[in-house]
């Protein structure tokens, strides 16, 4: 059976991810206590099902301790189990809860030693939940949704779920340092010292996927040296990450705006590693920029 477990911080997009899986034909269960996971799998197998998606969070924190063992057991039994841990910055989560005007799932907990009228603030709920779920991040792929639209998150989930089972998936992503480090990065490379196409007026509106920008960066010896340094580093340590029983390794390439240099290098690295590895390439700021441009374009 193909099993996808969605967990993470409230407000980070777990419901969006679960809806994508439901649309893809998965039988979905939200807020399932982890202690019931194995029983649910057996029930669905008896019913002839082949796909199952489950979401769980801090509301079931008391039974999360056994989840890692259950996942290992399911994999040992031959099931294809993927685990996605969704998170976001505290500032982003506060904004999302404020916009939706929904209460945090932990908001009804009493403060230690408090009376029934005392409740945790939203900020306290978020920090408490992150502390409660800290160990869960080691189980699967961490996805930082801080700067992602719902549509972009849907696309990422679709790409990851469609992957065939393999020892490790290499995720290579570009990002903009001016928007902060992505929380899901395992390795981060700073390429802001490389020549910047932004200062060429003809290249400024283009991206690292466009041929004029590619030609500009291909012609620079420092860019080629940086590519080879990153390539060699990843090639050297990738076997060790595989030996650590990782399912995913996220390599983040950052420049100032996430439009030219980081996109170019991410695409080039992805192209190189696809010959030997299962690779997903994604661009944080590039897709958001294209959405803004499309929204600003005159209606046809």
Which helices and strands, and how do they pair?
Blueprint: E1 2-8, H1 14-23, E2 27-29, H2 37-46, E3 51-55, H3 67-76, E4 80-87, H4 90-100, H5 122-132, E5 141-144, H6 150-161, E6 169-176, E7 187-190, H7 211-218, H8 221-243, E8 248-255, H9 261-273, E9 278-283, H10 284-296
Parallel strand pairs: 1-3, 1-4, 2-3, 4-5, 6-8, 6-9, 7-8
CATH topology of the largest domain: Rossmann fold
The number of distinct structural domains comes to 2
| pLDDT averaged residue by residue | 87
Shape: globular
The percentage helix is 40-55%
The CATH homologous superfamily of the largest domain corresponds to P-loop containing nucleotide triphosphate hydrolases
The percent range for strand residues is 15-25%
Number of strands: 9
What is the second-level CATH architecture of the largest domain?
Answer: 3-Layer(aba) Sandwich
| Secondary-structure element pattern, one letter each | EHEHEHEHHEHEEHHEHEH
The biggest beta sheet is recorded as: 5 strands, parallel
Radius of gyration (Å): 21 Å
Widest sheet, order of strands? 2-3-1-4-5
GO molecular function, one term: GTP binding
Domain RapZ-like N-terminal: 1-159
Protein name: p-loop-containing kinase protein
Domain RapZ C-terminal: 169-286
